[in-house]
């Protein structure tokens, strides 16, 4: 199998444009799941986020949306072979996705490239570039599929995160949690983990360092991810 074996489930990803990544694992382990009973994963890819969130909060009714048919098929297989085959996944773009349920929690590891050159792989371009799902379209989708107490969890590179925060604020959302992620203590943060909501909260950014100087995972990273990695 080409993929990752976690403690409670496995994820094949050879058919997916975007493979299992540290970004996805970070968001799945960090996302705020404390409120509500229903969750939507936008851009499911391999199904990793949906599976991680379901492991963390088994009571959640988890739905996922994936635009790419090949990724949708692989995510469906990963879900069906997991302990949580009740996760529901739809082959759809989020712009036209409709639901009778307004979701309590939304998670997304969104495309963020907008100015760089594209390669010849259409599926990878769709997964990586914002012309398939702009930040504005993503925020409109969250607004349409959420309610006043909903939480929106996102991970982005730090530069793009500042753009996203600006657009989210303009739409009436508040940054409620913010974690800056750096690979080592001596490097600048490269990723922003963010939770947004409609209610204002005090938000003091935290810092997560992935590796110690010796190359081993830091205590903070182990504490965050130990329920998922096999050898942790």
Describe the structure.
By secondary structure, the chain is α/β, with parallel strands linked by helices. The protein has helices spanning 22-30, 48-56, 69-80, 122-128, 135-145, 158-170, 219-225; strands at 3-5, 10-12, 38-42, 61-66, 88-91, 103-108, 146-157, 174-182, 191-197, 206-209. The strands form two sheets. The protein has an eight-stranded mixed β-sheet with strand order 5-4-3-6-7-9-8-10. Strands 1-2 form a two-stranded antiparallel sheet. A hairpin with an 8-residue loop joins strand 8 (174-182) and strand 9 (191-197). The longest helix is centred in the C-terminal third of the chain and has 13 residues, at 158-170. Residues 36-114 form the Methyltransferase small domain.
**What's the β-strand tally?**
10
**Low-confidence regions:** 121-130
Structural class: alpha/beta
The proportion of residues in beta strands is: 25-35%
Gyration radius, in Å = 17 Å
Level of helix content?
25-40%
Average pLDDT taken over every residue: 91
Q: Major β-sheet, in short?
A: 8 strands, mixed
Shape: globular
Strand line-up of the largest beta sheet: 5-4-3-6-7-9-8-10
């Amino acid at each position: 199998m080409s993929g990752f074996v976690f403690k409670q489930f496995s994820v094949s990803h050879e058919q997916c444009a975007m493979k299992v990544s540290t970004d996805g694992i970070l968001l799945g382990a960090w996302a705020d799941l404390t409120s509500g009973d229903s969750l939507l994963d936008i851009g499911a890819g391999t199904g990793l986020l949906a599976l991680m969130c379901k492991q963390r909060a088994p009571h959640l009714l988890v739905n996922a949306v994936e635009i790419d048919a090949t990724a949708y098929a692989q995510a469906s297989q990963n879900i069906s072979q997991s302990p949580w085959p009740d996760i529901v996944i739809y082959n759809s773009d989020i712009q036209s996705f409709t639901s009778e349920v307004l979701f309590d929690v939304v998670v997304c590891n969104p495309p963020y490239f907008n100015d760089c050159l594209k390669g010849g792989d259409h599926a990878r371009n769709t997964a990586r570039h914002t012309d398939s799902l702009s930040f504005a379209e993503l925020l409109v989708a969250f607004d349409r599929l959420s309610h006043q107490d909903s939480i929106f969890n996102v991970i982005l590179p730090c530069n793009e995160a500042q753009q996203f925060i600006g657009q989210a604020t303009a739409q009436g959302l508040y940054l409620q949690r913010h974690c800056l992620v750096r690979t080592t203590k001596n490097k600048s943060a490269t990723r922003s983990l963010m939770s947004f909501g409609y209610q204002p909260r005090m938000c003091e950014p935290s810092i997560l360092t992935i590796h110690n100087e010796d190359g081993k995972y830091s205590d903070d990273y182990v504490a965050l991810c130990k329920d998922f990695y096999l050898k942790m």
